[in-house]
Amino acid sequence: MKVRKLEIQLRGDDRRVIARPFIVNTARVGAVMHRIEQLAEATVEKLLENLRRDFYQRHHETASIFEENYRVAAARIGWKDEWSLSRRHLAGAYFTMEYSVDSAALFNPSIVAHPDQSNAPRGGLKFIMSLRATGEGHVSSVVFRTGTINNKQCVELDPAATTLHRARIVPDRQYHKPTFRQKLNELGVLQSVIDIVLGKLNETFTIIDYNDVVEDTRPLMQNIAGSNEAVRTMSWLVSSNYHITLAADANLSELVIFPNSEGESHGIEDLRLVRFVEDDGQVFYYGTYTAYDGVRTLPMMICTRDFKRVEVHSLNGPGAANKGLALFPRRIGGRYIMCSRIDGENLYINTSDSAYFWESATRLATPRYPWEFMQIGNCGSPLETKEGWLLLTHGVGAMRSYAIGAVLLDLNDPLKVIGHLPEPLITPTDGDREGYVPNVVYSCGAIIHDNYLYVPYAQADKSTTMAAVSMDELLNRLLENRL
């Protein structure tokens, strides 16, 4: 079976930056504000003019970013002085920093059909690819690239965006109390604290409502052992569910989903995109990922129609544990289906009436061949073919070497494995085994077009390339290895 490596190499580019808040302690915020207050207005204007010259062309809406970060800093210390617009923007610049999102690595890609196919070449397909980008402090975010596959098995990437948009949280996010209570119970939060806080909230509430109630109920909880940790966990969870928006005039390749909550403060890891078609024909784009706060991981999922407005939700239930959750691209028998690796070693199939609640999982496959003896997991959402669901897998073998393989599942009963490749499709080679994590090839999702499978994959957790393989050859090989 011939696997053709394409002439595509995506590497980190330290020129691609976003403007993010520069968080310091309240004492330093106050000191900086007082220093700025002492400046003459002419000095303020001169300093701000220098900032305009150096930074306004590097970011969209730089002035509004400075204003926003000034407001946040002022609120932290209760700063009430009325300043001119220029002085506010100068202060905001001191509480802003540039972050090079993919200066360290660009890896773990996932690919789906672009939501807008209006300018696709004849017989071709436009796509959008997500990538895990890593910068200073090994903080991971999600960036996007777009491109086309033509009818001659040629893949062309659009030029990378030079100016990036950091997606912003929509402040009026609504939370549903029953959903919130269930997740708190799963996390083992003290029931007495849950009852006190949620007892004061309506069936739907905002984060502002939640914060107000927490402050009002603190006296009721001061004698409950462990209440402070319980409240911290509740606050961590409520900040992990939100909406984000991209500027209406921005291209999708300009979108950066940077950690927006405490729960993902140390990274957004391994987004697995899927183009999901509902039974009534509606199309949604879902993406599962892992949020990491430096101590805990939380399984998350985005949902969008166009990548301009994105909902971010935590995944709930014992079936949504560990990493590597991947949603099937349609319902089967009226239910959502998910592939998972809840025990860190084996493949599982989950079913649910809701995309966000997963109560149980049934084991699908265990490591079978030497190249996957340590563990087997998915490499993104399954792809529907005439012979069954094609599920790309990753296997871990000797020397913690990762390889990409494949299994074929029954279309109507995905718990039935039809075939399992005895050898991997893609393995680390001398040309791509060196990097941040040696001996690793990894993908978070592939795509089929014109009877070819296109697999974007990471090399050594550092850079990204792509390979193509004939679907006829791959399916024949899987059917030759029926189980």
Give the SSE layout:
Layout: E1 3-5, E2 17-21, H1 26-37, H2 41-55, H3 62-77, H4 85-94, E3 96-100, E4 105-113, E5 125-134, E6 140-149, E7 155-157, E8 165-166, E9 168-170, E10 175-176, H5 177-186, H6 191-198, E11 204-205, H7 207-221, H8 227-238, E12 242-245, E13 255-257, E14 267-277, E15 283-292, E16 297-304, E17 309-314, E18 326-327, E19 336-340, E20 347-352, E21 361-365, E22 375-378, E23 383-385, E24 388-396, E25 402-409, E26 417-420, E27 441-442, E28 447-449, E29 452-459, E30 463-470, H9 471-480
Parallel strand pairs: 8-13
Antiparallel strand pairs: 1-30, 2-3, 4-5, 5-6, 6-7, 6-13, 9-12, 10-11, 12-17, 14-15, 15-16, 16-17, 18-19, 19-20, 20-21, 22-24, 23-24, 24-25, 25-26, 27-29, 28-29, 29-30
Structural write-up:
There is one protein chain. This protein has 483 residues and is of the alpha+beta class. It is globular. Helix 1 (26-37) packs across helix 3 (62-77), helix 2 crosses helix 4 and helix 7 (207-221) packs antiparallel against helix 8. The protein has helices spanning 26-37, 41-55, 62-77, 85-94, 177-186, 191-198, 207-221, 227-238, 471-480, and strands at 3-5, 17-21, 96-100, 105-113, 125-134, 140-149, 155-157, 165-166, 168-170, 175-176, 204-205, 242-245, 255-257, 267-277, 283-292, 297-304, 309-314, 326-327, 336-340, 347-352, 361-365, 375-378, 383-385, 388-396, 402-409, 417-420, 441-442, 447-449, 452-459, 463-470. The protein is built from 9 helices and 30 strands.
